[in-house]
Design goal:
Length: 411
């Protein structure tokens, strides 16, 4: 081995070590000064929020912010290779001129065009053992989809015609894991017409968390990396399972609308969210909608996510117990872990938590977010689950103690 390749190899090794050692996860301890039965979100998230007070990101979910910071560091280590630097800069300058100096757009478009190959080849620097985690995410999706179909099939709360429609739609659903892809030669062809917006959207894998469109569930790399964090394997699976199950909830909603069970859930969720102090600050009659109505589809998906991923955690638990031939690994702790991993997904920065409900956009006042605030998504979510009260041994007077009126069965 000559001296140059030795240097290159040791450099590569150095980059690798750095990537593995860098903290990609948030291990902030729970806040034991807070009673989880009254303020579960604060119990799980307050220390994390103190540690990561600000974010410039509009989503502000801390797990994704941490990942983006990690991505930024890896990108700066990779740099723009010398041989493409001048093309990269030329392209970016052209874009800036054409697009009113929109730096985010042009940086994204230039990266998608010139650096995607580099990112794809180095995917293991961004997420160590990427292929294993990709496989795991697909397994989680398939299991959730299968169980959701089974639940709908077996339910006596849903009419046959709605069942058939829902099952057909669920069968069509698929998971898309967004990631940099090796570009074919003609992606670099100078003669093709360039749509900077489209190009920039190809660079979304580092920034998107998850969304659903046309029965496709898209997850970004910040979700895949949850499978790589230092928590127990089961906690990682729970976190990803919550996120994917929420997106499956969006697919279920459409065929579900109009069933008697839907009306009951719609009314209950609407009242629950309209009753929040928060709802008084919501633009009165935004398109004739109340706060509970405006956030309904997201709240419905959260409801699906909680019920589906809870079942999934039980299945994963049984599987692990069978594999390890252990009799039982402290069930109470497992339940606690499940709810904690649920809440962790929602921990947001202070800036995000204090974001006004209404923002001004192109001289109009519009709602800032179709989701309810994270604190409600967590606290109202866990109080529906009798298992939560049992796990944390909540007393009847505690705010988040289970009451039958909170129990909303979808299937
Ligand atoms: Zn959603």
């Amino acid at each position: 081995m000559n001296i140059t390749s030795k240097i290159i190899l040791s450099l590569l090794f150095f980059i690798n070590i750095n990537a593995c050692n860098r903290s990609q996860s948030d291990d902030s301890p729970l806040n034991f000064n807070i009673n989880p039965c009254d303020h579960f979100y604060e119990y799980v998230c307050s220390n994390t929020r103190e540690r990561y007070p600000f974010s410039n990101d509009k989503q502000g979910f801390i797990f994704a912010d941490i990942f983006r910071l990690h991505v930024k560091n890896i990108k700066s280590e990779l740099g723009v290779p010398e041989e493409i630097r001048s093309n990269f800069n030329k392209f970016k300058d052209q874009c800036l001129e054409a697009e009113n100096n929109n730096l985010n757009l042009c940086q994204g478009a230039a990266e998608a065009r010139y650096l995607q190959n580099l990112y794809a080849k180095n995917i293991n620097l961004f997420i160590p053992n990427f292929l294993d985690h990709e496989k795991k995410a697909n397994e989680i999706f398939n299991r959730l989809k299968f169980n959701l179909i089974q639940n709908v099939q077996k339910s006596d709360l849903i009419d046959e015609s709605i069942k058939n429609k829902a099952i057909a739609e669920m069968n069509e659903s698929q998971l898309i894991i967004q990631q940099p892809k090796l570009q074919e030669e003609d992606a670099n062809n100078e003669n093709i017409k360039i749509d900077y917006e489209v190009l920039n959207s190809l660079n979304d894998y580092f920034y998107n968390i998850a969304h659903e469109k046309d029965k496709k569930v898209f997850i970004g790399l910040s979700v895949v990396q949850l499978l790589n964090t230092s928590h127990s394997n089961k906690t990682n699976i729970n976190s990803v399972s919550h996120i994917i199950a929420h997106e499956l909830g969006h697919i279920l909603l459409n065929p579900f609308i109009g069933s008697p069970q839907w009306s009951y859930i719609f009314k209950s969720l609407r009242e629950e969210f309209n009753d929040l102090e928060e709802s008084k600050n919501f633009l009165p009659n935004f398109f004739g909608l109340t706060y509970g109505e405006y956030t309904f589809s997201e709240n419905f998906s959260d409801l699906v996510a909680m019920q589906l991923s809870y079942e999934d955690s039980l299945l994963a638990q049984n599987e692990m117990e069978e594999n390890s031939k252990n009799s039982k690994i402290g069930t109470n702790n497992n339940e606690k872990e499940f709810f904690i991993s649920y809440a962790k997904n929602f921990c947001t920065t202070k800036r995000h938590a204090e974001m006004p409900l209404i923002v001004s956009y192109e001289n109009k006042l519009i709602p800032a977010d179709m989701h309810a605030r994270a604190v409600y998504r967590v606290d109202l979510g866990v109080r529906r689950m009798p298992q939560f009260s049992e796990a944390f041994q909540c007393a009847a007077h505690n705010k988040l103690s289970f009451k039958p009126v909170f129990d909303l069965k979808i299937w």
